[in-house]
Design brief:
Strand order of the largest sheet of chain B: 1-3-2
Helix content of chain B: 55-70%
Strand content of chain A: under 5%
Order of helices and strands of chain A: HHH
Largest interface: A-B, 15 and 16 residues
Helix content of chain A: over 70%
Oligomer: heterodimer
Distance between the termini of chain B: 33 Å
Number of strands of chain A: 0
Structural class of chain A: mainly alpha
Shape of chain B: elongated
CATH topology of the largest domain in chain B: Arc Repressor Mutant, subunit A
CATH class of the largest domain in chain B: Mainly Alpha
CATH architecture of the largest domain in chain B: Orthogonal Bundle
Number of domains of chain B: 2
Order of helices and strands of chain B: HEHHEEHHEHHEEHH
Largest sheet of chain A: none
Radius of gyration of chain B: 18 Å
Number of helices of chain A: 3
Largest sheet of chain B: 3 strands, antiparallel
Strand content of chain B: 15-25%
Chain lengths: ~90, ~170
Protein backbone atom coordinates (compact mmCIF):
# COMPACT_ATOMS: atom_id res chain seq x y z
CA UNK A 1 0.00 0.00 0.00
CA UNK A 2 1.29 3.44 -0.96
CA UNK A 3 1.64 6.27 1.54
CA UNK A 4 -1.25 8.28 0.05
CA UNK A 5 -3.49 5.22 0.29
CA UNK A 6 -2.56 4.70 3.94
CA UNK A 7 -3.43 8.35 4.64
CA UNK A 8 -6.74 7.90 2.79
CA UNK A 9 -7.62 4.84 4.89
CA UNK A 10 -6.70 6.71 8.10
CA UNK A 11 -8.83 9.70 7.01
CA UNK A 12 -11.75 7.40 6.29
CA UNK A 13 -11.53 5.78 9.73
CA UNK A 14 -11.29 9.21 11.36
CA UNK A 15 -14.37 10.35 9.40
CA UNK A 16 -16.16 7.17 10.51
CA UNK A 17 -15.28 7.94 14.14
CA UNK A 18 -16.56 11.53 13.81
CA UNK A 19 -19.69 10.20 12.10
CA UNK A 20 -20.30 7.88 15.09
CA UNK A 21 -19.86 10.74 17.58
CA UNK A 22 -22.10 13.06 15.56
CA UNK A 23 -24.75 10.35 15.14
CA UNK A 24 -24.83 9.85 18.93
CA UNK A 25 -25.00 13.64 19.34
CA UNK A 26 -27.98 13.73 16.96
CA UNK A 27 -29.76 10.92 18.83
CA UNK A 28 -29.33 12.89 22.05
CA UNK A 29 -30.10 16.37 20.74
CA UNK A 30 -32.38 15.72 17.72
CA UNK A 31 -31.13 18.78 15.87
CA UNK A 32 -31.27 18.95 12.10
CA UNK A 33 -27.89 20.70 11.86
CA UNK A 34 -26.17 17.82 13.62
CA UNK A 35 -27.94 15.28 11.40
CA UNK A 36 -26.69 17.07 8.26
CA UNK A 37 -23.10 17.24 9.52
CA UNK A 38 -23.32 13.62 10.59
CA UNK A 39 -24.44 12.60 7.09
CA UNK A 40 -21.57 14.63 5.59
CA UNK A 41 -19.03 12.71 7.70
CA UNK A 42 -20.67 9.42 6.73
CA UNK A 43 -20.34 10.23 3.03
CA UNK A 44 -16.76 11.37 3.56
CA UNK A 45 -15.91 7.99 5.11
CA UNK A 46 -17.81 6.22 2.33
CA UNK A 47 -15.87 8.15 -0.32
CA UNK A 48 -12.57 7.19 1.29
CA UNK A 49 -13.46 3.50 1.46
CA UNK A 50 -14.78 3.61 -2.09
CA UNK A 51 -11.48 4.98 -3.33
CA UNK A 52 -9.52 2.40 -1.38
CA UNK A 53 -11.77 -0.37 -2.73
CA UNK A 54 -10.28 0.40 -6.13
CA UNK A 55 -7.01 -1.09 -4.92
CA UNK A 56 -8.62 -4.34 -3.75
CA UNK A 57 -11.15 -4.75 -6.58
CA UNK A 58 -9.96 -2.71 -9.58
CA UNK A 59 -12.95 -1.17 -11.37
CA UNK A 60 -13.22 -0.65 -15.07
CA UNK A 61 -13.76 2.86 -16.30
CA UNK A 62 -14.17 6.01 -14.21
CA UNK A 63 -17.03 4.75 -12.03
CA UNK A 64 -15.14 5.28 -8.78
CA UNK A 65 -13.94 8.75 -9.79
CA UNK A 66 -17.43 9.85 -10.82
CA UNK A 67 -18.91 8.48 -7.60
CA UNK A 68 -16.17 10.17 -5.52
CA UNK A 69 -16.75 13.53 -7.25
CA UNK A 70 -20.48 13.21 -6.74
CA UNK A 71 -19.91 12.43 -3.05
CA UNK A 72 -17.65 15.50 -2.77
CA UNK A 73 -20.53 17.60 -4.04
CA UNK A 74 -23.01 15.95 -1.65
CA UNK A 75 -20.64 16.45 1.31
CA UNK A 76 -20.19 20.16 0.58
CA UNK A 77 -23.93 20.55 0.03
CA UNK A 78 -24.62 18.95 3.41
CA UNK A 79 -22.12 21.25 5.18
CA UNK A 80 -23.64 24.26 3.44
CA UNK A 81 -27.17 23.18 4.43
CA UNK A 82 -26.02 22.72 8.04
CA UNK A 83 -24.75 26.31 8.01
CA UNK A 84 -27.93 27.86 6.65
CA UNK A 85 -30.63 25.65 8.22
CA UNK A 86 -32.58 27.29 11.03
CA UNK A 87 -33.41 25.18 14.04
CA UNK A 88 -37.01 25.43 15.19
CA UNK A 89 -36.34 26.92 18.63
CA UNK B 1 -25.90 24.03 47.24
CA UNK B 2 -23.38 23.81 44.38
CA UNK B 3 -20.52 23.44 46.85
CA UNK B 4 -22.43 20.76 48.80
CA UNK B 5 -23.17 18.89 45.61
CA UNK B 6 -19.52 18.83 44.58
CA UNK B 7 -18.41 17.64 48.05
CA UNK B 8 -21.06 14.90 48.05
CA UNK B 9 -20.01 13.79 44.59
CA UNK B 10 -16.40 13.53 45.76
CA UNK B 11 -17.38 11.53 48.85
CA UNK B 12 -19.67 9.23 46.85
CA UNK B 13 -17.03 8.61 44.18
CA UNK B 14 -14.39 7.84 46.80
CA UNK B 15 -16.69 5.32 48.52
CA UNK B 16 -17.54 3.79 45.16
CA UNK B 17 -13.84 3.52 44.31
CA UNK B 18 -12.91 2.17 47.74
CA UNK B 19 -15.86 0.22 49.17
CA UNK B 20 -15.45 -0.31 52.91
CA UNK B 21 -13.42 2.87 53.38
CA UNK B 22 -13.64 4.15 56.96
CA UNK B 23 -14.58 7.58 58.22
CA UNK B 24 -11.07 8.78 59.15
CA UNK B 25 -9.70 7.70 55.77
CA UNK B 26 -12.36 9.70 53.92
CA UNK B 27 -11.60 12.66 56.17
CA UNK B 28 -7.87 12.33 55.51
CA UNK B 29 -8.15 11.84 51.76
CA UNK B 30 -10.70 14.57 51.05
CA UNK B 31 -9.57 16.94 53.80
CA UNK B 32 -13.11 17.64 54.97
CA UNK B 33 -13.84 18.76 58.54
CA UNK B 34 -15.33 16.02 60.75
CA UNK B 35 -18.69 17.72 61.33
CA UNK B 36 -19.08 18.56 57.68
CA UNK B 37 -18.18 15.02 56.60
CA UNK B 38 -20.66 13.51 59.08
CA UNK B 39 -23.37 15.78 57.70
CA UNK B 40 -22.69 14.77 54.08
CA UNK B 41 -22.39 11.07 54.91
CA UNK B 42 -25.71 11.17 56.76
CA UNK B 43 -27.26 12.84 53.70
CA UNK B 44 -25.89 10.17 51.34
CA UNK B 45 -27.13 7.39 53.66
CA UNK B 46 -30.55 9.01 53.92
CA UNK B 47 -30.75 9.16 50.14
CA UNK B 48 -29.87 5.45 49.95
CA UNK B 49 -26.71 6.09 48.00
CA UNK B 50 -24.39 4.52 50.59
CA UNK B 51 -24.64 2.28 53.66
CA UNK B 52 -22.47 2.13 56.75
CA UNK B 53 -21.31 -0.87 58.78
CA UNK B 54 -19.82 -0.74 62.25
CA UNK B 55 -16.53 -2.69 62.19
CA UNK B 56 -15.04 -2.60 65.67
CA UNK B 57 -14.01 0.96 66.28
CA UNK B 58 -14.44 1.90 62.63
CA UNK B 59 -17.50 2.83 60.65
CA UNK B 60 -17.06 1.56 57.12
CA UNK B 61 -18.95 2.91 54.15
CA UNK B 62 -20.15 1.01 51.08
CA UNK B 63 -21.92 2.22 47.93
CA UNK B 64 -25.46 1.01 47.41
CA UNK B 65 -26.58 -0.25 44.02
CA UNK B 66 -28.68 2.47 42.48
CA UNK B 67 -31.76 1.15 40.73
CA UNK B 68 -32.72 3.62 38.03
CA UNK B 69 -36.34 3.85 36.96
CA UNK B 70 -37.57 5.29 33.65
CA UNK B 71 -37.82 8.81 35.05
CA UNK B 72 -34.23 8.62 36.34
CA UNK B 73 -33.04 7.43 32.94
CA UNK B 74 -34.82 10.32 31.25
CA UNK B 75 -33.25 12.80 33.67
CA UNK B 76 -29.83 11.23 33.14
CA UNK B 77 -30.14 11.70 29.38
CA UNK B 78 -30.46 15.45 30.11
CA UNK B 79 -27.65 15.45 32.65
CA UNK B 80 -25.36 14.05 29.94
CA UNK B 81 -25.77 17.32 28.05
CA UNK B 82 -23.51 19.94 29.55
CA UNK B 83 -25.85 22.85 28.85
CA UNK B 84 -28.90 21.11 30.34
CA UNK B 85 -26.80 20.07 33.33
CA UNK B 86 -25.64 23.65 33.91
CA UNK B 87 -29.19 24.95 33.58
CA UNK B 88 -30.46 22.39 36.09
CA UNK B 89 -27.71 23.17 38.60
CA UNK B 90 -28.48 26.88 38.24
CA UNK B 91 -32.22 26.29 38.72
CA UNK B 92 -31.54 24.14 41.79
CA UNK B 93 -29.65 27.05 43.31
CA UNK B 94 -32.01 29.73 41.98
CA UNK B 95 -35.57 28.45 41.78
CA UNK B 96 -38.02 30.62 39.85
CA UNK B 97 -35.40 32.10 37.57
CA UNK B 98 -36.39 33.44 34.17
CA UNK B 99 -34.75 32.86 30.80
CA UNK B 100 -32.64 36.03 31.10
CA UNK B 101 -31.22 35.00 34.51
CA UNK B 102 -30.30 31.53 33.24
CA UNK B 103 -28.85 32.92 30.02
CA UNK B 104 -26.63 35.31 31.99
CA UNK B 105 -25.46 32.64 34.43
CA UNK B 106 -24.82 29.91 31.86
CA UNK B 107 -23.41 32.41 29.34
CA UNK B 108 -25.38 31.20 26.37
CA UNK B 109 -27.79 33.08 24.11
CA UNK B 110 -31.41 33.39 25.34
CA UNK B 111 -32.59 31.42 22.27
CA UNK B 112 -30.26 28.49 23.11
CA UNK B 113 -31.39 28.58 26.75
CA UNK B 114 -35.02 28.78 25.68
CA UNK B 115 -34.56 25.68 23.50
CA UNK B 116 -33.00 23.71 26.36
CA UNK B 117 -35.58 24.95 28.88
CA UNK B 118 -38.44 23.95 26.60
CA UNK B 119 -36.97 20.46 26.26
CA UNK B 120 -36.68 20.22 30.06
CA UNK B 121 -40.28 21.42 30.47
CA UNK B 122 -41.52 18.97 27.81
CA UNK B 123 -39.75 16.13 29.64
CA UNK B 124 -41.45 17.16 32.88
CA UNK B 125 -38.16 17.86 34.64
CA UNK B 126 -38.64 21.60 34.92
CA UNK B 127 -41.86 23.46 35.66
CA UNK B 128 -42.79 26.65 33.81
CA UNK B 129 -44.87 29.32 35.53
CA UNK B 130 -46.17 32.29 33.61
CA UNK B 131 -46.51 35.65 35.28
CA UNK B 132 -47.68 38.31 32.86
CA UNK B 133 -45.37 38.16 29.86
CA UNK B 134 -42.53 36.61 31.83
CA UNK B 135 -41.95 32.86 32.34
CA UNK B 136 -40.26 31.50 35.46
CA UNK B 137 -38.66 28.10 35.75
CA UNK B 138 -38.23 25.70 38.63
CA UNK B 139 -36.96 22.12 38.97
CA UNK B 140 -39.92 19.79 39.66
CA UNK B 141 -38.18 17.24 41.86
CA UNK B 142 -34.95 18.82 43.19
CA UNK B 143 -34.17 15.89 45.52
CA UNK B 144 -34.17 13.40 42.66
CA UNK B 145 -31.99 15.63 40.46
CA UNK B 146 -29.49 16.16 43.29
CA UNK B 147 -29.29 12.41 43.89
CA UNK B 148 -28.63 11.76 40.20
CA UNK B 149 -26.10 14.58 40.00
CA UNK B 150 -24.15 12.91 42.80
CA UNK B 151 -24.07 9.53 41.07
CA UNK B 152 -23.64 10.81 37.50
CA UNK B 153 -20.17 10.43 36.08
CA UNK B 154 -19.29 11.93 32.70
CA UNK B 155 -17.78 9.31 30.41
CA UNK B 156 -15.17 9.88 27.69
CA UNK B 157 -17.86 9.40 25.03
CA UNK B 158 -20.07 11.98 26.79
CA UNK B 159 -17.19 14.46 26.60
CA UNK B 160 -16.63 13.78 22.88
CA UNK B 161 -20.32 14.10 22.01
CA UNK B 162 -20.66 17.22 24.15
CA UNK B 163 -17.61 18.76 22.47
CA UNK B 164 -19.18 18.14 19.08
CA UNK B 165 -22.53 19.66 20.09
CA UNK B 166 -20.81 22.67 21.66
CA UNK B 167 -18.77 23.30 18.51
CA UNK B 168 -22.08 23.62 16.62
CA UNK B 169 -23.69 25.72 19.32
CA UNK B 170 -20.75 28.14 19.02
CA UNK B 171 -21.19 28.45 15.25
CA UNK B 172 -24.88 29.19 15.79
CA UNK B 173 -24.08 32.00 18.19
CA UNK B 174 -21.54 33.65 15.88
Amino acid sequence: MELDEIIRVLSSFLALAIFTISAIAYLRERRRKILLVSAAFFFYALKGFLKVSDIIIPQKGDVIDIAANLLDFVILLLFFSAMVVKESR
Amino acid sequence: MEFDLETRRKIYELIKKSPGIHFREIERRLKIAVGNLQYHLRYLEKKNLIRSDQDGEYIRYFPKDCQLDDVDKKILSFLRRRTSRRILVYLLNNPNANNKDVSKAVRLSPSTISWHLNKLVEAGIVEKRKEGRESYFEVKDPERIVKLLITYKESFLDRLVEGFVEAWEHTERK
